[in-house]
Amino acid sequence: MEFGKAEFIHNRTICSLSLENSVLSVTCRKKLNLLNPPKPVSQLHRTISILDVVSATWAPAEWKANEKSYLSRSEKSSLNLGCFLLVLNVVTKTRDHKWRMVTLKFRSAEKTLCTEWAHLINAKLEEELLQKRFTRPQNLLIFVNPYGGRHKAQSIYNATVEPIFNLANIKQTVVVTEYRNHAKEYVETEDISNYDGIIAVGGDGMFNEIANGILLRTQRENVIPVQASSCNVPKCYKTPKYKLGVIPAGSTDCMSYVSQGINDPETSALHIVVGDNHPLDMCSIYDDLGKFIRFSFSMTSYGYYGNVLRKSERLRSLGPSRYDFAGVQTFLNKHVYSSEIQFLPSSTKSQATDTKKCRFPCEICTNHVEPPTIKTSVAFDSAAAISSISGGDIPDLKVAMPDFQLQSSMHSPLSELAVPNMKRNLSVDSELPSPFSDASTVPFPGTSDNSGSESTTSLDRKDNMAYKGEDAREWKVVRGNYIMVNSAMMSCACARSPQGLSPSAHLADGNMDLILVSDCSRANFIKYMLSHVGKADRFDFPFVEVHRVKAFKHKALKKRDAVLFHRRNSVSSVRMSVSESNNITEASTPNSGSESCWNTDGELIDSPNISVWVHAGLITLYARGVEEI
After folding, report:
1. Which of 34, 396, 428, 492 has the smallest C-beta neighbourhood within 10 Å, fewest atoms?
2. Could you tell me which of 448, 485, 47, 456 has the C-alpha nearest to residue 305?
3. pLDDT tens, position by position, 610-628
């Protein structure tokens, strides 16, 4: 349906404006100056989706010198050379994922023409937003981290973000953070009921703070415990009603890159302004006693990345370059850790090795999360209705959480696990004692020997590790000497690594990719790390294995267990001298048996023994996902 046509002067041309089927068309009919603009009239036409309009207003103005001759005598005398403007602020998109705000000005001698068209465009925009169940923010709580990254967050907000939000008529409450976890404490304790969304101007750490704060507050307000018992997974967590957004101003800015395809503050601000909406998986992390540690949205890594973060914390004065120095030092001091990992394979058909990536619109992400419910709270008389989003309860895993601590006896069922020797050095011998040797609780179920090259062992007993969903999957176990153990909730792409840690990981499919990097030479490890920079297959290495999982548990083997593990796999002689035993101890357990730590979204977790569980679409993000170029 065509709503109307009108004639204006725009961009030194006489043009007609029409609105039909949610598309605004600008058709140039005649140039005021044959030489300016230089393009032919046919190339000056423009079509604008109504959803790309940020605002439509009118304002009084003056005619430009080259426009006066096109007015009639009566218009000149009656209006005294005055005119009126129809002003449209519109989002334009480039091929490199950048979004830009463009202001289009249409001049007319008639005031009513400009006012009526401004009202028409705003009304059509409201109608389209409600029809597609979109909401645009009207009141935002904004946290600015002046200490993160290159210390430019404040200037980025003042110069880029604030002017865009002002043009969109968004009210803003700005809190400049003063200390670690300031934003987390604020959203947990202060009254935030008047806000539509919460924005982080900073890096991934700031976004993680806000996400943790709002999730903990939401569970507390709904009387949902976050601590996990020894036999059950965490309860079904409730999705906060506030959408979260991030303006990249940190060191890595993984969240912006993965959800928008670029680290650009103006692009991120415009995604927020237009009310883009995308679910985001979160994972909850617990220690071996079931005590809640934190929520995470990106990478959780043990070993190399954990050591890099620990070292870089002492070099914060160097800025982002501290990660380079810490990375080189950690590489030279190569560490290998003996671990046991239990994981619950994904029930979906997608695999971590798939070539298909998460791209807008992603069917995999949208199929795994319920759409949010829109509740309009303002009458239909403004440029964009204020609404609140309250996601439905996301169904959780319904998995019985196994205990970390098992019987210490050498004859416990765990000692019966037998996995054959494999090319990746992930074998487990029947004489290896249980690594869980400090408590007596439910014994681990015994399993039969698996032949072939698989590095996993099934755990069958339902009362210990049963996945009770419709597509029941058995828990698996692997043991090995690892340089690092990574889990990726998303691709973890960034400017330095455009494909990321796991290129085919999705934002909201209810899974994470578990990546195990076994012991290898420094040369091979360098090749693996360099594969993240380009488009090489980072999983095409004999010492790397990857699994798409819903949950996993990690247990660091103690020195005694690690020595026996190494002995059974690397030493042919049963007899061993004291010096040989000491050498193996040093080789198997670096730094005389010291343990590594976890790097989760740039935050340290000192405990090596943790469990991690995925919660599908627990956060709603101001984003739409990476668009195909």
Report:
1. 34
2. 485
3. 999 999 999 999 999 999 8
